[in-house]
Amino acid sequence: MKKQPIGVFDSGLGGLTILNALHRELPHEDLIYFGDTANVPYGSKSKAAVTKFSLAIARFLESLGVKLIVVACNTASAQALAELRRRISVPVMGVIEPGAERAAQTSRNGRIAVLGTEGTVKSNAYPKAILKRSPQARIIQQACPLFVPLVEENWGKKPAAELIAREYMARVQKSGADTVILGCTHYPILKPVLRKILGKHVTLVDSADTLAQAARAFLTARGQAAAQGKGCVRLYASDDPARFKRLAGYLLPGKIGAVRLKKLDL
Q1: Element holding 168 (H helix, E strand)
Q2: For the residues 159-179, what does the mean pLDDT come to?
């Protein structure tokens, strides 16, 4: 079990931020990443569609012999995690609980803002998880549907990104939140823009590191953590692997090998 790989999936490129964190935290582990580029973004799709895509990806990763599946997508974690755990034999870990835990521990004034896709916001998954840990917390949610395409097109440093972010952040600033959860794996790529707008006094919670730590603790407790050797990374995309490789190069410089095409069996 120790040398079986860890499977990671997201709707597109965003989950590579979590792949990076897992590689840092678990350098001996082999990692398999699946980007569902044929169906990105998930945030505007129905729960039924997101669950269907997630199950197809999880079954594919399961067929590759992974020992753990990390759902590196907030929308899929919010809408499909329970079904995945019910129907997949491999342990499945989502991204929302670690992010909620970090936010509850970090906030000083109890005001927490959640940035997410429309699907994540509608699910109320983050408020539920935060209130379990901090019942007095005051939470606002802000859907940011244009953030994902900005990142997927590598427009994070263009003026348009700041203009759009300022529109979304106006309500967050008005709320007085001192902690902001980046509730989509694409959003950490926009950290420089968000820090510029929100200021240094606001903490941005990126759950990638917290999730990676949780994955290490989980595997260690089960005696399944790899302890030697250099882990390798395999990448799959459900559409246009050449484009995925080109854009992924901005996030994983020097680490991109072949990107394999794998159409989903829906």
Answers
A1: helix 159-175
A2: 97
User: Given this model, what pLDDT does residue 209 score?
Assistant: 84
DSSP letter assigned to residue 187: G
Q: Are 175 and 111 in contact (CB under 8 A)?
A: yes
Question: Edge-to-edge, what's the strand order for the sheet holding 203-205?
Answer: 138-143, 111-116, 179-183, 203-205
Q: Tell me the catalytic residues.
A: 73, 184
Query: In Å, what is the CA distance from 74 to each residue of 52, 116, 119, 160?
Result: 15, 8, 9, 24
Residue 223 above 90 pLDDT?
A: yes
The model carries a pTM of: 0.87
In terms of Cβ atoms closer than 10 Å to its own Cβ (0-12, 13-18, 19+), residue 52 is middle
Going by the annotation, the residues of the binding site for substrate are 10-11, 42-43, 74-75, 185-186
Detail the residues annotated as belonging to a binding site.
10-11, 42-43, 74-75, 185-186
Q: Which residues pair with 142 in a beta bridge?
A: 115
Query: Which domains, and CATH codes, for the chain?
Result: 6-94+209-261 (3.40.50.1860), 96-207 (3.40.50.1860)
Residue 39's contacts (CB-CB under 8 Å, 6 or more residues apart) are 11, 45, 49, 53, 238, 264
